[in-house]
Amino acid sequence: IEDCLRGRLDAKSGRLVLGGLRDYMNKFQNAERIIITACGTSWHAGLVAEYLFEEFARVPVEVEYASEFRYRNPVIGEKDFVIAISQSGETADTLAAIELAKSKGATIFGVCNVVGSSIPRATHAGSYTHAGPEIGVASTKAFTAQISVLAMMALMLGYQRGTLPQGKYVELLNELESIPKKVQKALTANEAIKYISGEYKDVSNALYLGRGYNFPVALEGALKLKEISYIHAEGYPAAEMKHGPIALIDEEMPVIFIATQDSSYDKVVSNIQEVKARKGKIIAVVTEGDTTVREMADHVIEIPKTHEAFNPLVSVIPLQLLSYHIAVMRGCNVDQPRNLAKSVTV
Ligand code: F1P
Q: Which of 26, 60, 193, 260 has CA 20 to 30 A from 338's CA?
């Protein structure tokens, strides 16, 4: 825990990754509920965190769009620990959600990237993600940095509450430390992804499907494509496909599956079969060495294996690259997409 509080992942630079938690450890540990509030990509990182906190710390979690939360009359009080996530630290909806939660007596913890921005100042405590400046408007490295911080928080909380045994806690922290190397490896698929992008740059729609930890990644993949290529894209839990989106599938529809080898793998494979039977085009992000999905998909993109809880940190990389290449090929300005602001302050 001390390692974690000192910022074990960032030991070389000596940065305090979770330092902000020190004074609020009691509130965090005894929280009856965690409420996560954010917008856009940060909200997707919050969804990943819901899975992490509930799996490892067994605390109930709610993930709320700040843009909705601020306008409703939520049941919230002193026993709630609110985590507000924001790259810019300036998002007006998230700030308003923080003020609402504060007025009800909840403890607010910020996970922000921009040092000294408004959200860190409005919260009781927080941790910076230290991802460095996001050059473009669309969040990319901020997403993975947010999940890294939230994962550390979830592991630490699980260990402290006794729901995560010490051996498992250490094993997971070690795995988390291996992620930067795995991300490097995932980036080596860049040329292959560029080729795939060329095949799909003119589509009008795309569907992204994932299960478990990869469900929020499906949402994020779809959002990146919308934001920077202006292609209509939808992200869904793969199991929801049969409840509606399956009607969209035909030879024109690319379906991007996140099909890593984890506890959802067999079920995702059957979802792939369902799409294939309807002649949908399949692009699949798979674990290195996968052969089953390779035989079924039109294209596969391999990523290194990690613990399924950390899959989003690696599986989002090819989806970010796919959106990037498609956007460039369509002549879009990837750094400054139309109609989008870096910090949405109104
Ligand atoms: C939230 C957000 C970003 C998105 C765009 C508009 O920003 O929705 O996720 O990429 O920049 O704002 P933030 O609160 O994380 O700064």
A: 193
CB atoms near residue 49 (< 10 Å): 26
* Matching CATH number, 183-329, of 3.40.1790.10, 1.10.10.10, 3.30.1490.20, 3.40.50.10490: 3.40.50.10490
Whether 342 is in the pocket of ligand 1, judged by its Cβ within 6 Å, is yes
Residue 229 near ligand 1, beta carbon < 6 Å:
no
Q: What is the mean pLDDT of the chain?
A: 92
Cα of 137 from ligand 1 centre, angstroms: 8
In eight-state DSSP terms, residue 221 is H
Counting from 1 in the atom list of ligand 1, the atom nearest the Cα of 41 is 9
Fold match, 2-177 / 183-329: yes
Average pLDDT over residues 99-108: 96
pLDDT tens sequence across 280-293: 999 999 999 999 99
Q: Is 42 in the pocket of ligand 1 (CB under 6 A)?
A: yes
- Distance from the Cα of residue 27 to its chain's centroid: 25
In order of 41, 145, 157, 345, the CA distances from 92 in angstroms are 15, 21, 29, 5
Indicate if ligand 1 lies below 6 Å from the C-beta of 37: no
Is the C-beta atom of 271 inside 6 A of ligand 1? no
- The whole-angstrom distance between residue 112's C-alpha and the CA centroid of its chain comes to 14
State which of 36, 37, 39, 225 you would mutate to test the pocket of ligand 1, scoring each by most atoms of that ligand within 8 A of its C-beta.
39
